[in-house]
């Protein structure tokens, strides 16, 4: 793929100004950031003590490692080696979370404790799963009761991946995710040019080195290091350039919110190993990361086909940078989508048009990609969903109220989750639930 076209000089100035302000006011010893379009970095910069080439200096990714772990889990699912509804005990026996499902762990809905037992895993070397000596006290909430971020949960998922493949988690994600994506400068430990993790004193401009170590079984929660170039490639992956690593439909499935974090101001949720944020009307998908000495972020706007990335070697104190870079890019150079062109309808044309749920008018439309959309007339309230035809011929809801439900199309009615839509309001000739008053409208 050719290098992406660079942003305009005025856009570059705006992006640089924001990045410089965040680095200066956040007092990060070093910070690199960039925006991603067309498969790679369209703009990037390094601020502070960052050697050139700034895009080839490793920083620790922290919890962005969780998304890469999730990709490895979803590959196992797509191969049929596990299901998201499988209890953990089926694949990783002997933990107190054995009755919680793989999908719940991916979405932080399993009720696992936020951290692993023992010393703070981010600052002390780690060992094996057996050495954690997990007990009932590490199950802190009921299954699927609420979102509760759990590093421990992803440590368990990393162990699941390792046992399924018969190799270490690091070897699996390197061979199956990182190397196929061309992320050759993403490694479990620092390699080559790498930033030193630091903490900045709250009341003085002095720094303290932070420790770095192998987290053992907790590696899958935050171990990886990467360069800005590699993180930009992962942003392109999140935008849909998945190569042979993951089916794009599986990636789209991962971005559907499952667990909602109600503690965050605004709208914040979690899918299958990815954060989903609603910021100023835009939906951003990706993950943030922090480890002692480092902060990181990768988020993409799939509607605008753009992403932003940042890496810094400071423990805390930076204002959010990635959403701001995306907002600047959206304002200065909004994405221009492809031109509309005709495409064949996936159903006969006489099936499309106005249908009535009781007295309420709805419209069934054909959309690009072989989809059907059922929703209220413009300006009216009501439920709306898109439907995709499965290989067995069923039309199944993709989103909204009817996600997962089957739309059945008959000559005189639509049957959807026991709701019957007719060509006329309460058509007496159609199988309206409860029947229609024989006296009719009056």
CATH arch. level architecture of the largest domain: 3-Layer(aba) Sandwich
What is the residue-averaged pLDDT? Answer: 95
State the distance separating the first and last CA atoms.
66 Å
Total count of domains:
2
In quaternary terms, these chains amount to: single chain
Specify Rg, calculated over alpha carbons.
Answer: 25 Å
Structure report:
The chain has 442 residues and is α+β, with helices and mostly antiparallel strands. The chain is built from 10 helices and 20 strands. The protein has helices at residues 9-26, 64-78, 102-106, 129-132, 151-165, 169-178, 219-222, 228-238, 248-254, 322-332; strands at residues 30-37, 40-48, 59-60, 198-200, 207-209, 225-226, 259-260, 267-270, 275-279, 282-291, 294-301, 306-312, 353-357, 360-367, 371-376, 385-389, 395-397, 406-409, 413-416, 419-422. α1 packs antiparallel against α10 (322-332), α2 crosses α5 and α2 (64-78) packs across α6. The longest helix is centred in the N-terminal third of the chain and has 18 residues, at 9-26.
Which key phrases capture this entry?
442 residues; alpha+beta; Beta-lactamase; 2 domains; eight-stranded antiparallel β-barrel; 10 helices; 23% strand; CubicO group peptidase, beta-lactamase class C family; AmpC-like
